[in-house]
């Protein structure tokens, strides 16, 4: 369960932005009716879903990209060589290139709250820290500051949790996160954190740390068929078999760290769908089904696993190739779950409706005058009442996070006729 994420100096993000999933104390009639939109950790109410809205180029995707990058640092930095440059960009303007980029996440794993953070220059780790609340009181696991001296003893400070912590530090270069190395060196609490990022915080439907499609299908086939039926699909059966690999290498898109359905399935699996009209005739999923059906197949498999096991899903553009009713179906699956969470971006304004979402579930992403990304919640607008038309207000620019398009006939003629 994620409670809070903070980012600064990543891509178009300059000053710190805060994505807070701890629910606000909203006592309106609408909010009370949306009790399934929140879950509980101890005495804290936590949002199950949040949706980020904003104009193109406002920085929505950069927020998702930055979170993915930071998660992948935890998973992969123990493999970094001396010549590596981290795969992210700092804010381009001003003197941001001389400042570190910062990441902070507050999360719950095995009913214990953790605070983990690190800061980076383009080719080195600057600071890193991990605290937790095992008995309701904050306890240090370790802190690290590469600026404090030349020796590991000067740079690191440890609590009493990790065994032989300095041995790990001695094997941790300035290209590597300590938590990543400690997990590799079999330190228990570090392995818990690594497994949280690897198994619980799912960064997309495909690639990275998403479970293998075949494994998911073997577990959730019957639930998948029922989920597709509810989604008004006429698919009545699906069969999967492995086919011989042809030596194809899959390369994730380095910008958003994603793979396509075709990349994952082609040359590895043969997936046949069977329809109500004639269940004896098979269709190849990749070549004979629509883009929406292919995506829905992968999405539903992942969501069944995520919701069943109280995981977190991070998605950029949840509406891509999907009908609005299917997007709402996905939101409703998370509402029906116990503790699973969804963080997504979208342009679909149908969900700007306070009978479907609480004010604190809706975030706006806006580009400031200096081209930096700003993030804020509808809850910040205390004067916006539940009875107002939220979709209309958003499209009219009440919350800034929309493009202001001056497409008058005169302007369009000047483009078309070069006047």
TrEMBL record:
Highest rank taxon of the organism: Bacteria
Organism: Tangfeifania diversioriginum
SUPFAM superfamilies listed in its UniProt record: P-loop containing nucleoside triphosphate hydrolases
One annotated GO molecular function: ATP hydrolysis activity
All residue ranges annotated as the ATPase AAA-type core domain in the record: 51-352
Secretion signal span: none
InterPro entries named in the record: ATPase_AAA_core (IPR003959), P-loop_NTPase (IPR027417)
Protein name: ATPase AAA-type core domain-containing protein
């Amino acid at each position: 369960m994620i409670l809070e994420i903070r980012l600064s100096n990543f891509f178009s993000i300059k000053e710190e932005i805060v994505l807070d999933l701890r629910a606000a104390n909203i006592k309106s009639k609408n909010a009370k009716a949306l009790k399934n939109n929140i879950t509980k950790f101890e005495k804290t109410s936590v949002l199950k879903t949040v949706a980020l809205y904003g104009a193109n180029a406002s920085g929505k995707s950069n927020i998702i990209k930055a979170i993915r990058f930071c998660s992948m640092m935890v998973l992969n930095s123990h493999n970094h060589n001396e010549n590596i440059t981290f795969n992210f960009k700092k804010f381009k303007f001003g003197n941001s290139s001389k400042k570190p980029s910062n990441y902070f996440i507050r999360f719950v794993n095995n009913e214990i709250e953790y605070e983990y953070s690190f800061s980076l220059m383009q080719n080195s780790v600057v600071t890193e820290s991990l605290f937790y609340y095992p008995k309701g009181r904050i306890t240090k696991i370790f802190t690290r500051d590469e600026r404090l001296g030349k020796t590991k003893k000067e740079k690191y400070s440890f609590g009493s949790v990790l065994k032989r912590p300095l041995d790990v530090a001695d094997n941790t270069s300035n290209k590597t996160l300590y938590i990543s190395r400690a997990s590799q060196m079999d330190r228990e609490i570090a392995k818990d954190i690594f497994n949280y990022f690897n198994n619980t915080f799912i960064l997309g439907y495909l690639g990275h740390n998403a479970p293998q499609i075949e494994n998911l299908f073997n577990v959730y086939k019957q639930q998948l068929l029922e989920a597709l039926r509810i989604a008004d699909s006429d698919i009545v059966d699906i069969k999967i078999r492995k086919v011989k690999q042809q030596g194809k290498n899959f390369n994730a898109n380095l910008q958003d760290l994603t793979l396509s359905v075709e990349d994952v399935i082609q040359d590895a699996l043969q997936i046949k769908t069977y329809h109500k009209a004639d269940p004896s005739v098979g269709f190849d999923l990749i070549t004979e089904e629509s883009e929406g059906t292919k995506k829905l197949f992968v999405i539903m498999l992942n969501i069944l696993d995520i919701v069943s096991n109280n995981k977190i899903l991070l998605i950029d553009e949840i509406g891509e190739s999907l009908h609005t009713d299917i997007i709402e179906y996905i939101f409703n699956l998370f509402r029906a779950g116990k503790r699973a969470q969804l963080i997504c971006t979208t342009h679909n304004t149908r969900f700007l409706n306070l009978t479907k979402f609480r004010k604190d579930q809706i975030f706006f992403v806006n580009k400031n005058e200096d081209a930096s990304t700003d993030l804020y919640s509808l809850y910040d607008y205390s004067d916006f009442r539940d009875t107002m038309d939220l979709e209309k207000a958003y499209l009219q620019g009440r919350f800034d996070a929309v493009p202001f398009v001056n497409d008058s006939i005169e302007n369009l003629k000047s483009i078309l006729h070069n006047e």
